[in-house]
Amino acid sequence: MLLSLPLAAQNSGYLTVGETQKVAAKRGAVVQTKIPMTVQQGYHVNSNTPADEYLIPLKLTWKQTGALEAGAVAYPKPTLEKYEFSEKPLSVYTGKFEVTANFKVKADAPAGPGAAVGQLRYQACSDRACFPPKTVEVTVPYTVQ
Amino acid sequence: MSFPRLIAAAIAALSLAVLSTGCSSTTSVKAATVKPDGERKTAPDFALKDPEGKIVHLSDYKGKVVILDFWATWCGPCKIEIPWFMDMERKNKDKGFEVLGVAMDDEGWEAVKPFAQQLGINYRLVMGNDQTAQMYGGVDALPTTFLIDRSGKIAAVHVGLASKKDFEDGIAELLQNNSAPGIVRDDQSGRAAVPAAGGPK
Q1: Domain A2-144, CATH 2.60.40.10 — does that match?
Q2: How many CB pairs under 8 A join A and B?
Q3: Span A79-100, mean pLDDT?
């Protein structure tokens, strides 16, 4: 069961993490939530699978998940964009996109609210310059029923 | 003005234009991006380590024209400019010119050394830090490149990918000035505020 409740968007410059859907589920249930992100117009961030080994991928990792067990993080299909500074198209995200986080509620989880906290690392560029990698906190609130 | 006089004036103006164009191309280069001498500010000195752990000061480059390039391995536009700088280093090294690359990778030499070897970078690299970046105005966007004259003053700044010709013209203009003044002290910090003679390496 998924509920959408408003949470403050987390802005770290060139990428904004939007309101995350609140997870509400019973013990043992498998749940997923979509984490909306917006890249500022005129910029892009590397996808989770950039073509060049030196480019820094977008990556979401969990620091603490509380009553949830973290599953795979699903990244959207990137777009291939050609920029003035790249000989070949780069695998990037632009505009709005969503990262999907999968969880399983622990069998012995206590009923009640909690929050999974993760970190999203990304690195942004415009078509002429790049900006240092940044890390923004991602919070997924949940309720074990 | 009568028609014959108008024609004569036009021919004279055209001749003057051709003459002056011819003269300027043989006497001096004037780069559009290079600031007039009076508007240049002193480049802050720093002490950063090269790959061998040797401390490099900007003031070591006194008397030279220097390209000071803030870059990182994860910066695509930087990767375009690096071969340009390698070429400029090769062509102008004997004329009192050097490139100094300031790497801004958090991972340090572990990331930078293999990258530099892969590209065959032929100029000196040092590892940058936030303190140095702050001294140069923050340097958030990479590449950010400073063109420094022989007296240690910042003659041009390029934020983001610039044109190779802008760099080449700027270097040519600054190399025309062969004077090599002594080190200038920063009034507030007392630091050697930069260049003026004899290079590192």
Answers
A1: yes
A2: 52
A3: 94
